[in-house]
TrEMBL record:
Keyword entries, A-Z: Isomerase
Catalytic activity entry: D-cellobiose = beta-D-glucosyl-(1->4)-D-mannopyranose
Gene Ontology terms describing biological process: carbohydrate metabolic process
rRNA processing is among the record's keywords: no
UniProt KW Isomerase keyword: yes
Functional note: Catalyzes the reversible epimerization of cellobiose to 4-O-beta-D-glucopyranosyl-D-mannose (Glc-Man).
Family membership noted in the UniProt record: Belongs to the N-acylglucosamine 2-epimerase family. Belongs to the cellobiose 2-epimerase family.
Source organism of this protein record: Blautia pseudococcoides
The name this protein goes by in its record: Cellobiose 2-epimerase
GO terms, molecular function: cellobiose epimerase activity
Pfam family, one: GlcNAc_2-epim
Length: 404
């Protein structure tokens, strides 16, 4: 069985059933927490990012596999987003709600709004429900009106859209005003919204995000993306996030392709040059990652290390990093024809099969592993950040990209 069939089997028989079983029939949405011992906490908060990612996942699983039942699971997540995650008073989506749908963390974060746009756009594509597109539009305008400044995207806000410290997307002891992570997922969301709508305003915002990546985030000298920034998009950290770089390499390429597939008559010389430059440096990012972030673990298998902070490499093997690495390296193989990137993809898949996929009954993927391949951290199997978005998307990307 080749890799395509193996990832399809993983998607259909493992990942999808796990998340289907977390459907909350009483209060709506999906249960928000499964601990390492596979105990479901039905009273845990429900992250709005998690709900959006689940909505995106089932909408795309339906479009990939054609199983109408999957669209019903997407509709269940969509109904929960509309009824509970959406702030009908101040606009936008909350950070989280309680298990029974009451307002939890009222923070409005650009990251959350972006994932809701991403999910709503895909759900519109799957269901043709124009209400979903209308809601995506509302969030797009909210971001452009409330979350932008001269340098990029502001990130964290109170419920009534007053700026506040960006603690939720800051890490490594830093407090960042702006992050590459949020910018990447705004670009990802706008790519999907433009793909399904073809709207000129979304296209302009998408080009703006690409320019910020080119001018402020990508470093030509190191061929990597900076991670944390001050208000004027000046870097404040010595951090090399391998997972975000390889994820960005293919999401940026996706944006380029969607823009090129749009109205060609409006592609002026300046924008054409931006698209060409973006496509070129994303390949260099993937090549650099292949040099810096891969490590042999056993039996000639390879995995992706997590990050490098202040020159120290974190050798933890995180589930989402492996998933994004497979898509990123396969994307680079498709672009360059270099079989080395195909081999890397297959090696990481072999490692994932051997170590990352949790074969316990009723489980999904481990969160992370130490360098010997053991899940020693005991982190949850599902929680507000642990979702089917990365590994499910990897499966669907490989299936789509290897269609005959």
């Amino acid at each position: 069985m080749g890799m395509r069939e193996e990832v399809k089997q993983e998607l259909v028989h493992h990942i999808i059933p796990f998340w289907e079983k977390l459907k909350d029939e009483e209060y709506g949405g999906y249960y928000g927490y499964v601990d390492f011992e596979l105990h479901v906490d039905k009273t845990c908060e429900k992250g709005c990012i998690l709900n959006s990612r689940i909505l995106w996942f089932f909408a795309n699983a339906y479009m990939t596999l054609g199983d109408a039942g999957l669209l019903e699971y997407a509709r269940h997540a969509y109904d929960f987003l509309k009824k509970y995650c959406w702030d009908t008073e101040c606009g936008g989506v909350f950070w989280s709600v309680t298990f029974d749908g009451k307002t939890g963390d009222e923070t409005k974060h650009t990251y959350s709004q972006a994932f809701a746009i991403y999910a709503l756009s895909s759900y519109y594509d799957a269901s043709k429900d124009r209400e979903a597109l209308k809601l995506a539009w509302q969030l797009f305008h909210r971001i452009e009106e409330s979350c932008t400044d001269a340098f990029g995207y502001l990130e964290s806000f109170t419920r009534d859209w007053k700026p506040e410290d960006n603690e939720k997307l800051s890490e490594n002891g830093l407090l960042a005003d702006k992050t590459m992570n949020t910018l990447l997922h705004v670009l990802e969301a706008y790519t999907e919204l433009y793909r399904v709508s073809g709207d000129e305003k979304v296209k302009e915002a998408l080009y703006r995000s690409l320019r910020i990546f080119r001018e402020k985030v990508y470093r030509e000298d190191t061929q990597q993306l900076e991670v944390f920034f001050d208000t004027e998009m000046r870097t404040i950290s010595d951090l090399y996030s391998y997972g975000h770089d390889i994820e960005a390499s293919w999401l940026l390429d996706r944006a380029v392709q969607v823009l090129r597939d749009g109205k060609q008559e409006s592609l002026d010389e300046q924008n054409a040059e931006l698209l060409a430059e973006t496509s070129e440096y994303t390949t260099r990012i993937a090549e650099r990652i292949a040099e810096r972030a891969l490590c042999d673990v056993s039996m000639n298998q390879e995995a992706m290390n997590n990050e490098c902070f202040l020159g120290v490499v974190d050798t933890t093997h995180v589930w989402w990093v492996q998933a994004e690495a497979m898509v990123g390296f396969y994307n680079c193989y498709q672009k360059t024809g270099n079989s080395r990137f195909l081999e890397i993809t297959e090696h990481i898949w072999n490692y994932t099969k051997e170590y990352v996929i949790d074969e316990r009954e009723g489980a999904e993927w481990y969160w992370d592993l130490d360098k010997s391949g053991k899940p020693v951290s005991g982190k949850p199997i599902a929680e507000p950040w642990k979702c089917p978005y990365h590994n499910g998307r990897m499966c669907m990307e490989i299936i789509r990209r290897t269609e005959k």
